[in-house]
Design a protein that fits this description.
Blueprint: E1 4-9, E2 20-24, H1 33-41, H2 45-51, E3 62-66, E4 75-80, H3 89-105, E5 110-114, H4 125-139, H5 148-153, E6 159-164, H6 170-195, H7 203-214, E7 219-224, H8 226-232, H9 235-241, E8 249-256, E9 265-269, E10 271-275, H10 295-309, E11 315-325, E12 337-339, E13 345-347, H11 355-366, E14 373-378, H12 383-388, E15 393-397, H13 400-413, E16 417-419, E17 437-438, H14 446-455, E18 464-468, E19 474-475, E20 485-486, H15 491-503
Parallel strand pairs: 1-6, 2-4, 2-5, 5-6, 9-11, 9-14, 10-11, 13-17, 14-18, 15-16
Antiparallel strand pairs: 3-4, 7-8, 8-11, 12-13, 15-18, 19-20
Helix pairs in contact: 3-4, 4-6, 6-10, 7-10, 9-11, 10-15, 11-14, 13-15
Bound molecules: ligand BES, manganese (II) ion (MN) and zinc ion (ZN).
Zinc ion (ZN) is lined by residues 272, 275, 293, 354-355.
């Protein structure tokens, strides 16, 4: 049951609700805004409660006061934002994620959020409302598809209402809530696709998902099967697919929000629905996580859906080469040489470096659109986790302005990216003795040599960024609005990057 989000103008102290949620900074000296109004209406109960020292307003701290008829609402729920100078937009996203999960665990099925008088951390009220909506919806995410009895037991939060006092802010709050809803839904759908096991979420299932998305207005969907991909000459992609019985599907979505002649932004997402490593097989420990090796592809599909829902006035193409990577009797073997769609030959030294092979043909296919920009996103290298851990996406590319934009947008929305260098010297590591290029680059700089490999398939002059999400796509433990397991990280970044490109074109 999805949670509905409502927005209304009203006086928070007069709302009838199961719970009224108000956020407060740790270092607020006075009672201000909604807290002051609620304090007056409850004849000083908030002053007493806060004065007791029980609730300091530390980030993600939650404190609940039960009402006794002082106001229409049954409870006031305080949530902390931490110290004001340290607050970021992400603080309110986290606080809302925490508080909405608390509501669910207490079986409180609806709540009303007080919109603050001013945006948090110098942001607009629109951005703040968006982050609040995202925090709730992302925080409430659960994957119970294969646990129907557990799903029946949990009482979902059915409705969240955002209340703002001021008529003038209503349009901003509404716009923010709507955008937050679309963006959070996209990220949650990515999580769903990643959670589904590989026996269910096959390349064909992913293609069916793409077709469903395309039914929305303005989206064209083309699926190339093994035979069509062979005819086109996608030897790198098919080299990965040939060890698998499960049919590969090369998915293309075209969203047209601008006149036909406008050059599109092309998104390319890795969708290996299960990565065994192939003949260079992976160790058994934690191999099950490789069901999420299609995160990049899922992000591309859900981004297309989100920008169609947002009706963005741009053209965007989504390219998703989908396949398993299996060690079948026909599988590619180390030393095999593949001829890619671009015509370049690739010596496969390690069949577990399969992501770059399917992206090679995805990127070459992208060139047919003469793109305004190319963004690829992939769970590409374990090395990005070694370099950056799980708190930053690795970003590399051929265009500093675009890379800087990714970093700026990522910082603003709470999905940070960090640049690694892509100097020509790294290309030396992937020179082959027998082919144009080889698919691994030795011990040092694994994330960089992977990107250097990809750069072979991007024609000069097209702005390109590569996002390596192999360190961020899976969480070891739950965070305020990010669950354990598939995180969906990268979806909000790509969507917001497109929004940013629309609002300030390069
Ligand atoms: N899908 C993996 C990368 C990965 C590792 C994603 C851990 C998520 C978590 C990728 O296909 C892979 O196997 N990469 C190899 C490349 C190596 C053989 C050059 C790696 O990183 O070990
Ligand atoms: Mn692999
Ligand atoms: Zn992989």
């Amino acid at each position: 049951m999805p949670t509905t989000i409502k927005v209304k103008k009203g006086l928070i102290e007069e709302e009838r609700a199961e719970a009224i949620v108000v956020a407060r900074y740790e270092d607020d000296a006075k009672l201000e805004g909604s807290i002051a109004h609620l304090n007056r209406a409850t004849r000083g109960r908030l002053r007493t409660h806060i004065g007791s020292g029980e609730f300091q307003g530390k980030l993600n701290q939650v404190s609940i006061l039960h009402m006794n008829g002082e106001i229409q609402a049954k409870r006031i729920v305080l949530v902390g934002l931490g110290k004001k100078p340290a607050a970021r937009l992400d603080s309110i996203r986290q606080a809302m994620g925490t508080v909405s999960k608390t509501m669910r665990s207490l079986e409180i099925t609806s709540c009303t959020l007080a919109i603050p008088d001013r945006g948090i951390a110098g942001t607009t009220l629109e951005a703040t409302s968006q982050a609040m909506t995202e925090g709730c919806l992302l925080g409430l995410y659960q994957f119970l598809h294969y646990q129907p009895s557990r799903a029946k037991e949990t009482k979902p939060v059915r409705a969240i209402t955002l209340v703002t006092r001021d008529e003038k802010t209503l349009t901003m709050v509404r716009a923010g809530a709507q955008r937050g809803h679309i963006v959070a839904e996209a990220a949650n759908s990515v999580r769903d696709l990643c959670n589904h096991p590989s026996n269910v979420l096959t390349p064909s299932a992913l293609a069916a998902e793409a077709k469903t998305i395309a039914k929305a207005r303005g989206i064209q969907c083309t699926i190339l099967d093994r035979a069509k991909a062979r005819k086109l000459g996608m030897g790198a992609y098919l080299g990965v697919a040939q060890g698998s019985y499960e049919p590969p599907q090369f998915i293309v979505l075209e969203y047209s929000g601008a006149p036909k002649k406008t050059r599109p932004i092309v998104l390319v997402g890795k969708a290996v629905t299960f990565d065994t490593g192939g003949i260079s097989i992976k160790p058994a420990d934690k191999m099950e996580r490789m069901k999420a090796d299609m995160t990049g592809g899922a992000i591309v599909l859900q981004t297309i859906r989100a920008i169609a829902n947002l009706k963005l006035p741009i053209n965007v193409v989504g390219i998703v080469p989908a396949t398993e990577n299996m060690p079948g009797g026909q599988a590619t073997k180390p030393g095999d040489i593949l001829t890619s769609l671009s015509g370049k030959t690739i010596e496969v030294l390690n069949t577990d470096a399969e992501g770059r092979l399917i992206l090679a043909d995805g990127l070459a296919y992208a060139m047919r659109y003469k793109p305004a920009a190319v963004i690829d996103i992939a769970t590409l290298t374990g090395a990005v986790f070694v370099a950056l851990g799980s708190h930053a996406i690795g970003v590399l590319g051929n265009n500093d302005a675009l890379i800087d934009r990714v970093k700026r947008v990522g910082e603003a929305i709470g999905e940070r990216a960090w640049q690694l260098p892509l100097w020509d010297e790294y290309k030396e590591q992937i020179k082959s003795d027998v082919a144009d290029v080889q698919n691994t680059g030795g011990r040092g700089g694994g994330t960089i040599t992977a990107a250097a490999f990809l750069s072979h398939f991007v024609d000069d002059g097209y702005p390109w960024v590569h996002l390596d999400i192999a360190g961020t796509d899976w969480g070891e433990s739950a965070r305020p609005y990010i669950p354990k397991g598939p995180t969906g990280i990268g979806a909000r970044l790509v969507i917001e990057l497109l929004l940013d490109l629309v609002s300030t074109p390069s």
